[in-house]
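Hello support,

Our group uses your service weekly, and this is the first time we've seen a run hang past the timeout. The protein is Putative flavoprotein involved in K+ transport. I'm not sure whether the cause is the sequence or the server load. Input pasted verbatim:
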Amino acid sequence: MPTSITSLKTPHHSVIVVGGGQAGLSASYYLQQQGVDHLVLEKHSVTHTWRNQRWDAFSLVTPNWQCALPGYRYSEEHGGKDPHGFMKKDQINDYLAGFVKAVNAPVREGVAVRRVIPRAAGGFEVHTSHGEFTADQVICASGGYHTPIIPRLAERLPVGITQIHSEQYRNPQALPQGNVLVVGSGQSGAQIAEDLHLAGRKVYLAVGDAPRCARFYRGKDVVDWLAEMGYYQIGVDTHPLREGVRDNTNHYVTGRDGGRDIDLRKFALEGMELFGRLEGLQGDVLQFSGNLSESLDSADAVYNRINGSIDKYIAEHGIDAPAGERYEPVWAPSQERGELNLAEQGITSIIWCIGFTPDFTWVEAPVFNGRGHPGHVRGVTAQPGLYFLGLPWLYTWGSGRFSGVARDAEYVVEHLVRAQAKHKVA
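Update from on-call engineer: The timeout came from a worker crash unrelated to the input. Re-ran successfully.
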């Protein structure tokens, strides 16, 4: 007779954490502090994304001092000697390896969670590629970047065109000879376009609506100024956009070579060809909207607005700082091109840098909105015992990053422990 999921033979844990990245490991850190029995399930290996889904020249876009994983803040104690620098890919993975060792979480790697089902009597069934578990509470810490976005028109592109998503990009040498079209100008798109451009590849860039910011302004990293101004402490509940801030695209900037601005107009002066938003395909000809000037102007307006807020802060607090200045465009399109013939321009590769969509179809609880995003307050859902961690703007700007995930994990675990105590009393 088949063993029931409710059988005593089914492994049970007070908490199951789904995902072994920085969010799941941060949850484990605080669960261990609270003495809560738990198990972390990771379908690949811990911190897999950082080791396997970043290009070779990748570096942090925020200074190292913001790396504040629980019990393992970036410091000389943990091998960090450049708080205002920007760790490169190998250095990031060394930092994470130290964190993994320090946390020593109870992890089972290579276990994919296929279903999480609330039980009528309370708790959850957790169905995996390696059998079934039960848990009183579940923390979903698998992040929000699951399914790469590739438009359907990609299916009609010539078969000789190499197509990859940003998560698959490694370096210019890995692409076939020829010119490259990068679609999307968010953090990944802008940095990948720069990586190719610096390697001498001819790049065509379809610009999106991503904003940009300065790397350094008035004597300090802009991140340092914003931290001093309290921006990174603003919660989604008090942000002017409220939950709408979760839809914002990240500002493009880079930590490469010690950190600098990314100015797409400067790239255009150097030979990169810029287009507006990609809209369609007819044969070998891609079609673009005529919004390039608008997109560049909008990104620059955000750049100047952030600098203006810093100017105001400096003035109000009487801070002695170098003079500021307003960014003025170094290039503007005289006439926007609405079409691009792939064959005529020698384009052999396209890199899709237009993001990801979440996939929480394995969580069978009524907590999602029409776009597949979980509804929650600081990671706490309306389903008793079900929590989320590691999502962008779960609570603050740093929620999905090294800088803010510890605060979120601590809050979720404290809520979980209180709920557990109430249940025992009841």
